[in-house]
Amino acid sequence: MISMSSLPIAMRNAKTPALIPPSPPVPSFAPRLDPDAAWKQLAARDPQARFFYGVATTGVFCRPACASRRPLRANVRFFLTAAAAEAAGFRACKRCRPTIASSSPLEEVRSYIEAHLDRRVRLEELGRVAGLSPFTVQRLFKREMGVSPLQYQRALRANELRRALKKGSTVTDAIYDAGFGSSSRAYEGAQLGMTPARFAKGGKGERIGYCAARSPFGWMIVGATERGLCWLALADTKAEAEATLREEFPEAELLPDPSLEEVVKVALENVSEAGDGKPARTPLDLRGTVFQLRVWSALRQIPRGQTRTYSQLARDIGDPNATRAVARACALNRVSVLVPCHRVVGASGSLTGYRWGVDRKRQLLEAEKARAVSRF
Questions:
Q1: Which one from 96, 230, 330, 341 is the annotated catalytic residue?
Q2: What is the pLDDT of residues 153-167, one digit of tens each?
């Protein structure tokens, strides 16, 4: 064993420096980066920059446009590819996800919004990211996602806020951590369907209207805040259906609302010949992580009468390695039927699990396929 006393004085007194992985050797025929030019693009958060940078003090590598804190120039290493950064010992940033290649302008725009929740991203900026006009970005995004880029960003912030509140963060900390510039921004527009303080207390002091009704698939219950539908469950009895809502919002004031019978009808039309097969336009107050929102949005794009496997759905959202996470998101879906997680099956075609019962899942699929066949 080497004793400390046998080491040179300078080594004994020196602090252990952060490990800085050396840049990998670059073949003479490979394209090279100009570090000074790359640093200027990084400092400007240029969305057009096509390289990656690693930060020695954190061991993380990012895209130049990542919204993470700007590092010191001395700690930065530049790479032409994500693979080169990983080979140098850096791990991918969880915020800008540099290892996930964007397969379309929509994916470029969506990823950019998710990486910049701390400020408002304007259409002109998104246009530069996707190489499209602001008008085209708005039209494409709304057509594919069902909401505008601004609405999508607000939804993501709201869900970050929900997650922080559920973890026990103070309301003030959760608001700023979620990317809101002020507390008023978080409260305006009913970002949570209820105020942050009330959400943190299981909906205490909040009113949620509900309605339970019989359906061909058992008792259906819907619950709605002022922002939109936050709960749609299926059960064998009315009492069991109402119990699911109480468990989800134990501190909220639950009030019978007969007007919500129309929502029940819309939900049933979503699986019957009465509907047009397109996603229902009922306002939803979905509660989940950014990833779950993406999965639930993709679920709403599956045509009635068709199914997808979990791996197919993972590819649809641009994350082919996330099959298990997709299955988990489907299991946590709080608005059944209108967000049709019953349309996702196992790789072999088996029905696998379903939050409201496999038999009920079979009934829903059979009803949809029968309606689809009857139209021809």
A1: 341
A2: 777 776 666 665 555
CB 286 within 8 A of CB 335: yes
For tokens 């304007």, what's the residue?
Answer: 122
Sequence ranges of the chain with CATH classification 3.40.10.10: 35-92
Is the CB of residue 364 less than 8 Å from the CB of residue 266? no
Check whether domain 35-92 has CATH 3.30.980.10, yes or no: no
Which of 61, 162, 147 lies closest to 109, judged by CA?
Answer: 147
Instruction: Please report the sign of the dihedral spanned by the C-alpha atoms of residue 92, residue 93, residue 94, residue 100.
Output: negative
| Dist. CA 235–CA 357, nearest whole Å | 9
The one catalytic residue among 62, 66, 93, 211: 62
Identify whether 330 is a catalytic site residue.
Answer: no
Bridge pairing between strands 308-309 and 218-224: unpaired
- Residue-wise pLDDT for 325-344, tens only, equals 888 889 888 899 999 999 99
For the question of residue 230 being annotated catalytic, the response is no
What is the DSSP secondary structure assignment for residue 222, as one 8-state letter?
Answer: E
pTM for the whole structure: 0.49
User: What's the first-to-final CA gap in the chain, in angstroms?
Assistant: 82
CB atoms within 10 A of CB 243: 14
Q: How far apart are CA 187 and CA 50, in angstroms?
A: 38
Q: Which fold has domain 290-374?
A: Arc Repressor Mutant, subunit A (1.10.10)
The torsion angles phi and psi of 143, rounded to 5 degrees, stand at: -65, -40
User: Residue 315 phi/psi, 5° resolution?
Assistant: -70, -35
